[in-house]
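Key idea: predict the complex, not the pieces.
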Amino acid sequence: MAKTNTTPPEATRRDFLKMAWAGLGTLAIAEAGLMSAMFMLPRVGEGEFGGLITAGEVESFPPNSVTPFTQGRFYISRLEDGGFLALYRKCTHLGCTVPWEQTDNQFFCPCHASAFDERGDVLNPPAPRALDLFTVIIEDGIVMVDTGSLTERDRFDPSQVVY
Amino acid sequence: MKQAKKDVADTSFLQRMWESIFRGPLDPQTDRERKLMVLDSLILHLHPTTIAERTLKLTLTWGLGGMATLLTMVLVFSGVMLMFNYTPSPDQAYNDILNLQTQVWFGQLMRNIHHWAGNLMVVVVVLHMLRVFFTGGFNMPRQFNWVMGLLLLLLTVTANFTGYLLPWDQLAYWAITVGTGLITYVPLLGNWIQTVVLGGPEVGAATLLNFYSLHIAIIPISLLIIMSFHFFRVRKDGGVVTPRAPDEVLEKRQPKVTTVPHLVTRELVVGLVMMIALLLFAMWVDAPLEGVANPDVSPNPAKAPWYFMGFQELLLHFHPFVAAIILPLGALFTLALLPYLEPDMDATGVWFRSNKGRLMSVVATLIAIISTPILVITDEYLLDFVGWLPSLPTILSNGFVPLALLMLAVVGFYELMKHLFRASRCETVQATFVLLFVAFLILMVIGIWFRGPGMVLMWPSEVGVSH
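Result:
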């Protein structure tokens, strides 16, 4: 009778070991999961896209013009006042390549009909925000674009323009 | 003992070999032999030895589960064959497909079979799901197998989607670009997940390799494991539901027949008919292939695979977070939770719950057929929530505000139906499911046939001309 009521001292040790096994098992699964997840991370640093790209001399871009750069995947947009913007060509809606329609003076996405003006601002949804920007660097009259630095923005702001 | 020895001595060498492979007669004459045939066979013993006679009715299951299983086998076989002629790299993939279609014996046919079998499987799995839903096949004790079935549906669609990229043509490239673009609207982690899935910022070589590995290994293996569990549970839950007329009370003990030949013959017939249809279709209709993928030019219109057209149509009306994240996930979770609602009537085995349920389903179908196009056209030309609520961010004005209005309409439909028909909850939930499912089908039809360049609404004849 008394036997069933008293807890044997072994029980706590057994509990501890059970906990330890459960903990170690969880840890092992977590480690394997983390390892697999990190293994799957993208292999970055593949050269051409993502580096500094020389676009050309400042003079070669007339004001109020949009010039595509296929390799760099961006457009150089020179605004009326002579300022520069480098617009990433990927639609902010779902990632289609947005062509510049010279006749309509707008970027028009063929996938879901989003439209953007020369500053990248949304003219027509479903695009939720303006076209993304790359950093423009102007040195000694040469326009360069850093395709490794992408800036997301809600809408156009004069502070984004580089002179 | 003595008797057995004598038997062995009497058999020929070939006969002994034969009997080591097939332990019983191939044409069993007695019920005992028929049952033993099932028990002794690896494949057949997925079945029980006997089966309730009423469950054999074709109009209960339509053989849809068996068709999905057979399609899986067809897909594994044809897929492995294709692997012998395919390299998952942007420089090679498209040429490999051209080569397959023009240089390899039966290459085009093998690709067609794989392509159409994959598409057919989406249809069959969805129909299978509808069958289970409308016959109350997910009630106790089958709730969790319904959830497993949903997982299998997800895997089927993912398998299709990953396979869609592999030909590396324009169709593939932009469908995957748009499809994976949806991931970016997952809160907080969206961009990161998309980069991992694509293996970089845009669809490229890493994406192709990722999708290939998923398509040929991860997804098929997961599919086979969950399928095994799915079949196991069907057995453990006593087979498929027993069909009955509304108000019919079933006797506890149902008359049974042997699986061989009654069930197996029917399976063979369904399988053969499906294979004939698939082969004929694959012989006549080639799998689509457009020009090689060009990241510089998005085609106009760039459409998603057909099974995502419903969501593509929603994307034209809602903020992407609502159209591509909230609505699909909400629908999936609701579907998974449905069998766990407490049933307020016994509808297991009755098509459409009851006579009232049938009537309500027809009404819901009609309402969906009428209201969906009206809503689409109204939103296209009249509604402008972004313009009306300029101070709100678009995720509210074009997302949660219209979503809330829509949910209100659905709740209104539910209450109205419940009162008008004095219906049970089971019947009203079913009517609401019918409403939403038919609406989704109509969105698909609009997306496939009524959207032309620039995603503008137009008649199918005009869509065809502009191509």
